[in-house]
Batch of 4 targets.
Target 1
Amino acid sequence: MSAPRFNAHGVWAIYRFEVSRALRTIWQSLATPVITTALYFVVFGSAIGSRMGEVDGVSYGAFIVPGLIMLTLFTESIFNAAFGIYFPKFTGTIYEVLSAPVSSFEIVLAYVGAAATKSVVLGLVILATASLFVPIHIAHPLAMIAFLVLISATFCLFGFIIGICSNNFEQMQVVPMLVVTPLTFLGGAFYSISMLPPAWQTVAYFNPVVYLISGFRWTFFGQGDVPVVTSLVATLAFFFICLGVVAWIFRTGYRLKN
């Protein structure tokens, strides 16, 4: 018996539908990160940065750029992917998707791919906006793009899980607002972990977000709070954990078929 063929047409149909849904609110989607980025640079870059000077040899305005991108990337990736799969559940059209001639891998690829595409575009928009305020030099541009795509895909998978497990729109907001955002602020988004007292540095290293932000910051400045290999391993570990959970959900039908 021959192996089932990859249904590129089905993947493209779901992907195109999700992207077109995002394009209908393109101005709101792009205006929000641009305005938010500008406000962060007014408050952190100008008011606070003028008093802090440099962090690890980098001007404070430039230093916060990777953390600012990650802050938006985490929350937007989770919400986009969560809403993308929750809405078909809410309307009942999820059964049409599940009964279509597309595999679980193809469904995840389409939904997560569409959400990750929007997240990567938002990340690049924030980067372009930040470059209007401070001079930005990316030491490893290819690694930066790779980290951006990998982290986007990882958190989109995480959001996909949240969307499946959520029973209402309020539950989709709990993890991004009460867990991910605080961990991001405590994960060195706007400061270096080395600036903390020794005891708090030890605590900070138990925060998984530290490794993601540090790895992404390394692509800009060639340095981070932890070795880049450690950051890469931590990011890949989170990615495969999320991938395993998604595979289990489709294998068991948890929150999908009931």
Target 2
Amino acid sequence: MTTSSPTLRAAMGRRRALQALLATTCSTLAPAPFAQTGHSVRVVVPVGAAAGLGGIVGAVQHAFARVLGQTVTVDRQSGVGGIDGTSALVRSAPDGFTLGFVASSHVMCPNAYRTLPLDPIKDITPIAMIGNTPTVLVCNPNVPTSDAAEMLALLKARPGRMSYGSSGHGSLAHLDFASLLDEAGVKANHVPFEGIESMLDGLIGGRVAFAAVALASVQGHLKTGALRALGVSSAQRVAAAPDTPTMLEQGLPCSLAEGWFALVAPRGLAPAEVKRLNEAAQSAFAVPEVVQAMAEQGNRIRISSPQVAAAFIRAEVVSYATLAKKSGIGLL
């Protein structure tokens, strides 16, 4: 196995430092009373229902509505990189009635596409980082490997003859696997799909052999045996998948990034509304049923201030640019 370059190690170090910052910035503000305007709130989710972000929103929707005293509707707009849904979000009025959840793909798109209909920093108002989720390596159960170390050995023995899938060019699944291959000094073919659902169909059907995905996206398939887990990105084993060893346990560099998710609004949302919605998010994600549902999905709740969210997203754009360049992910 080759040693990763200083550039890649430095980029990974910055990412781990950002995750540590997020883990220690949970706000302790007491929930404020929320006005009951009677106006419904639309929450844009730029991924399909099978994605990990979809489960998070499903878990908190009703609690968020109770906290706000308003009806909360979920507008799912799946598409490659979340671009379609996020574009619809940023075109909306900054009045507090249209919000959106974004994930890691939000900051990776500038490193994958030459032209975008939005700016991932300038066109949003960050409200809060909500938390993070471990990434898990999975394979089709017909592939003769039981863990990540065996997977890399298999790829080394069959250079360029096996494939891995992603939910699209420049997605977290693409960058994670490309970074892992780069660090290990092995090769595999990338097959991009249009979204997580089609990628999982291709993986289960045998069109591709491997993938790196959010744990919440594949838990059901792991339980039924439709997919096999090979390793998880977290420092310790995850309670939601206790039998899956970490990459570190297998003596491998933990180059897989943990996914994250954030609550945002269109650019120009008034500071008072940002504060109100941040406090509402704190209250909604503290509801016991939501805490339990998030834990069952393997997610960790880490509610941050709007300021920390803004700084985190800006820094992630820079970190992913470094990783995308090092991993050879070109612009489309």
Target 3
Amino acid sequence: MECDIKDIKLAPEGKRRIAWAGKEMPVLGLIRERFQKEKPLEGIRLSACLHVTAETANLANTLKAGGAQVVLCASNPLSTQDDVAASLVKDFQIPVFAIKGEDNKKYYEHIEAAIAHKPLIMIDDGADLVSTVHASYPKVAKEALGSMEETTTGLVRLRVMEKKGVLKFPVVAVNDADTKHLFDNRYGTGQSTLDGIIRATNMLIAGKTVVVAGYGWCGKGLAMRVKGMGAKVVVTEIDPVRALEAAMDGYWVMPMEEAARVGDLFCTLTGDIHVLRRKHFEEMKDGAVVCNSGHFNVEIDINGLRELAAEVRPGVRQFVDQYLLKNGRSIYLLAEGRLINLASAEGHPPCVMDMSFSVQALACEYLEKNRGTLENRVYNVPRETDQWVASLKLKSMGISIDKLTKEQEEYLVSWEAGT
């Protein structure tokens, strides 16, 4: 089959990694069993632009079990697990276009390869696939049933497209499902970001001043984790409600210009551009470490950092570049400003991706079942889907919860009962 991966000989290790992740993804496993019997996606051409990891491989196999013809490309140049890509091609006959460390040109060539599949359904992580289709492939956009979006960053783009009336097919906001943002974003990003930082630097977190840029669900997750390891945590925000919440949660809250002077470690988790920029670098301590766990590498103004540098020493450690500034200080940039949790670590644990990818699979089924009836706008995941995934996850963890009595149900829908 047509594909573009690093080395097919890596497949045995990838297969073991996929199986290991699958053990921690019981909800997706149940969906795969049903999909295998019912084939709800029979004949659907599906292209997914996602992080090519062992967890993603289990989603791809579930979609294929449901009858979909799946093609996968990477949503980030540094997040691909090359052994997993090889196994998907060799062991599961799923075409993959992804190589860890690919340059920007190759990255978009791989997206073009996924679009050449003429997908009826798309799964996106950052909206690069969907935006490329809209920009250059009007026929594909016209025939598409719809897409799913996995990230806050991607949904910002897509909602702007909807508002401007240029969105050409319906999109399901998987990122906004409770079982996604409450768990994947908070616990998954919190743990995997810290994991990536420690793997890249071998840094002791205790006693450090850690600056968390953005207090959305991802920022909350990281702040919680580094606080638990003994860090002094500073939060920067532009939203007054989130800033107030961070203060009530016990964190220092201040503008980045002030935080730049006190931070030892900085991590951006906002989805916006140039959160860390030239004026902040000029204020940072000697030896400050900066990284990003938002979707794109634009959160850190790398060109601005480079302009301040008298010398750049790449690879002082794997995934660590040293910028020697003209003022004599050094700033260390991790993973080229790309997603630290996927570049130098393995991304989210499969336990949380089990919920997110279960929602993805069911959202594909939702688009197929509702073909021709949905408008060209961004839709929330149906509430019953979220509840079903959460219920199965609880069951897999051996946890039971209460149910409303008949009396309680009647009380909640009645106004006559009063107090």
Target 4
Amino acid sequence: MQGIPPASWDSLCRLLPHTTAVNPFYGRKFAAVGCSSVPSSPADFAARFPFTAKAELVADQAANPPYGTNLSEPLARYTRCHQTSGTTGSPMRWLDTPESWSGMVDDWVKVFQAAGVKPGDSVFFAFSFGPFLGFWLAFEAAQRLGCMGIAGGGMSTSLRARVLLENGCNVLCCTPTYALHLGSVLAAEHPGTDRNRVRTILVAGEPGGSIPSTREQIRRAWNGAAVFDHHGMTEVGPVTHEVPDEPGILRVLEDSFYAEVIDPATGQPVAEGQPGELVLTTLRRTASPLIRYRTGDRVIARRDPKHGLILVGGILGRIDDMVIIRGVNVYPTAIEELVRSVPGIGEYRVTLDHRNPMPELSLEVEAPAADASFLEQKLQAALALRIPVTVAEEGCLPRSELKAKRWRTIGK
């Protein structure tokens, strides 16, 4: 990617020799391919330094339990332990020193500030505080910014709705799916209330925050509140935040990341503006660093004169999520965009059926029959595929406060 900030390149050139010298995982990895010097240019870095894959990290932790060998400090220096969700394989534990943790909190403060959150705001965190990284970072960042942080862990959705109202919260943090669900419960159980002061909703964990039709549904459910997208991963921390007043555009935090976009099949860089896989090197989270980490996120990146490296359309989906149905490439984000463009549809579920020689897709939706029929027509027009849509009883499809699991596979 052209135009890399000089400070980011300098940070990378300091990180590589230090990590090689003190980190057992990367010491072995780089020695195996002869990477013993600082790269002379971004092209040299891409040519000589290998990618890091999640499978390598999982295998390293399995062989060296419980934390693996990707540690650049003595174990006694680490004070935080978090864990990935394991939705695409075995979960990983991730350790942080006070310094690396503080750096990520600083990045989350930037996310809040970009969203217009200010000292004195009251922020409600509508999720259980389990082992995942982002919840804890966001909570501490709200405190560092000077906000009132209210944790919604261990509560039913009904109780969360009540607590949010009773505390006069004006900022909500959750997934896009849960924002819709919580909004519907709030409307059903507290109709016509004038106590709903939420003006800003920060969403992450799913692509929906950058999908126009999903954003619009969330806005309608919350009386026109602003929706603000961002994304991150337990392995690397907060990575991007929405560009204010430019929905669907995510800005990479380049002080903390050296980013590349590659062709997932060849590993070669893609041209600016072309879709590819996001690859990240952590520049501040150096106690458990990741170098050329293949995130699996599908993005379109370009460099903007004002905002630096941006991802157009946000996270477009996962590289491995695409399915081919009768010769047509279908991404979950495309299905969600079409579903959310029909206002009468609540929750939905997609079934990928491999029981026949050719795989088939079908949808279940919580919606009136007329809306289901209309969606079926929209899917046919947009994708040139006949995808059956059936009506499900209201409230029968699964909901989650974390990443929604709307796709299921049968026959494979």
